[in-house]
């Protein structure tokens, strides 16, 4: 059975919004409920009171990340303030000290690009309205805004070393289509039918995703399939024609990324029609990341859920190749580092809508105590309130146990997946008690 994280769109196609969460239940945890007593030598306490204190306490962790091409920073819960803040600080260190130039979120490329444009303008336009229009609501919070504001200020001070925001997801397609329309519509009249089709298909699919949050909505699979195949064909045709368009190099590269992501937006109907299988969302995350770091020397930081960035699938029955981390490890052997994050108690921000969009309302919800036998149950007993450890040093304690994977809905607090930590992450950052992110 697929989890909500790994097959969000496929789940939406076979269930109503009212039943989708219950249909995504994770298999039961193993019977072993004994707590693990961690070796104190493995525990690296982290000071979270301020950036400079944090930077000093995570030096050993940064040393493991610095030489990698792709560093993935996971979150065990969507909507947790501390995970946004600490990942921002880690990203800042990697950008300031180790030549990382991109951070990519679990959101569509075109939406992130619209926000990124504001990060490079000397006039420093307001970020809040752009975030609310173009980013999924899980990123519409004060903590993410703090990172983007820092990036905007950094770019004004470092004109020769710019940092950028990107997206690796493939959900809503209108922003991609708009970028393509603005960049190509005046270049070649023969491309206009493809541009019009891409725009039409993206608008249709975006509206369909939004309707899935309405309890009375009925999914029209034939229309979805026909529209998606037309959109995929249009994006493919434009991508193949792009080299013939006389464009400045930077503009051409941006349009190429938008078109690659547009094809991914319609990969779901494409795979159903031609390969008779579900689309692998994690493989799309990895493929988009690969596009973003094609240039020699490119280094990127990824922000997404633990369930995506893990090397290990959240579902033992999954045959799509593992988490995005598994695909990325094969693409970049030895150049991928993944940090998982986890918490035991507190609150998190979530939406009652099963299909998260830029318009999904977010509110704070409590986290129940972790279940007996879970990693969180054992980690909560460590004396330090915040710490990290290298998963490959766990030794005989590196056993398969349930780890909580909280998504964007209140009901997701009951979701667990069995993980042997060293097979999932290189390191894990644990904060015992956390708080809900602050909506914009």
Mean pLDDT comes to: 90
How does the overall form come out from the CA principal axes? Answer: globular
What is the element string, with H for helices and E for strands?
A: HHEHHEHEHHHEHHHHHHEHHEEHEEEHE
How far apart lie the N and C ends? 35 Å
Main sheet summary: 9 strands, mixed
Per the CATH scheme, the topology name of the largest domain is EreA/ChaN-like  fold
CATH architecture of the largest domain: 3-Layer(aba) Sandwich
In total, how many beta strands?
A: 11
The CATH superfamily of the largest domain appears as EreA-like (biosynthetic domain)
Structural class of the helix and strand makeup? alpha/beta
Radius of gyration: 21 Å
Helical content, roughly? 40-55%
**Would you state the CATH class of the largest domain?**
Alpha Beta
- What's the helix count? 18
- Count of structural domains: 2
Q: Low-confidence parts lasting 5 or more residues at pLDDT below 50? A: 1-31
Strand content: 15-25%
């Amino acid at each position: 059975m697929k989890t909500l994280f790994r097959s969000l769109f496929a789940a939406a196609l076979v269930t109503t919004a009212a039943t989708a969460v219950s249909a995504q239940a994770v298999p039961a945890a193993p019977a072993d409920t004994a707590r693990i007593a961690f070796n104190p030598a493995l525990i690296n306490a982290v000071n979270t009171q301020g950036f400079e204190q944090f930077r000093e306490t995570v030096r050993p962790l940064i040393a493991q990340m610095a030489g990698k091409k792709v560093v993935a920073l996971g979150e065990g819960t969507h909507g947790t303030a501390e995970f946004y803040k600490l990942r921002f600080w880690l990203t800042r260190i990697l950008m300031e000290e180790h030549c990382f130039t991109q951070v990519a979120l679990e959101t569509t490329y075109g939406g992130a690009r619209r926000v990124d444009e504001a990060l490079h303008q000397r006039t420093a336009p307001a970020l809040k309205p752009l975030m609310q229009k173009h980013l999924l609501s899980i990123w519409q919070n004060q903590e993410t805004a703090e990172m983007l504001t820092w990036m905007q200020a950094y770019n004004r001070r470092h004109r020769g070393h710019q940092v950028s925001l990107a997206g690796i997801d493939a959900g809503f397609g209108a922003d991609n289509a708009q970028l393509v329309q603005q960049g190509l519509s005046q270049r070649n009249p023969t491309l206009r039918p493809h541009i019009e089709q891409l725009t039409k298909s993206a608008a249709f699919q975006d509206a369909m995703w939004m309707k899935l949050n309405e309890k009375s909505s009925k999914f029209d699979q034939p229309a979805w399939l026909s529209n998606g195949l037309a959109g995929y064909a249009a994006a493919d045709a434009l991508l193949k024609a792009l080299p013939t368009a006389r464009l400045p190099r930077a503009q051409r590269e941006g349009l190429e990324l938008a078109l690659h992501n547009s094809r991914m937006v319609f990969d779901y109907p494409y795979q159903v029609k031609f390969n008779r299988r579900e689309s692998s969302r994690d493989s799309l995350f990895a493929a988009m990341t690969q596009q973003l770091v094609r240039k020699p020397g490119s280094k990127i930081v990824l922000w997404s859920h633990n369930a995506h960035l893990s090397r290990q699938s959240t579902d033992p029955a999954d045959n799509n190749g593992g988490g995005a981390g598994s695909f990325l490890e094969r693409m970049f052997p030895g150049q991928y580092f993944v940090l998982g994050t986890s918490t035991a108690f507190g609150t998190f921000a979530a939406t009652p809508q099963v299909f998260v969009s830029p318009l999904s309302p977010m509110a704070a919800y409590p986290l129940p105590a972790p279940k007996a036998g879970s990693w969180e149950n054992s980690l909560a007993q460590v004396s330090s309130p915040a710490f990290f450890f290298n998963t490959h040093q766990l030794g005989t304690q590196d056993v398969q146990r349930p780890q909580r994977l909280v998504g964007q809905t209140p009901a997701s607090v009951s979701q667990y997946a069995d993980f042997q930590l060293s097979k999932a992450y290189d390191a894990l950052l644990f904060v015992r008690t956390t708080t809900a992110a602050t909506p914009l």
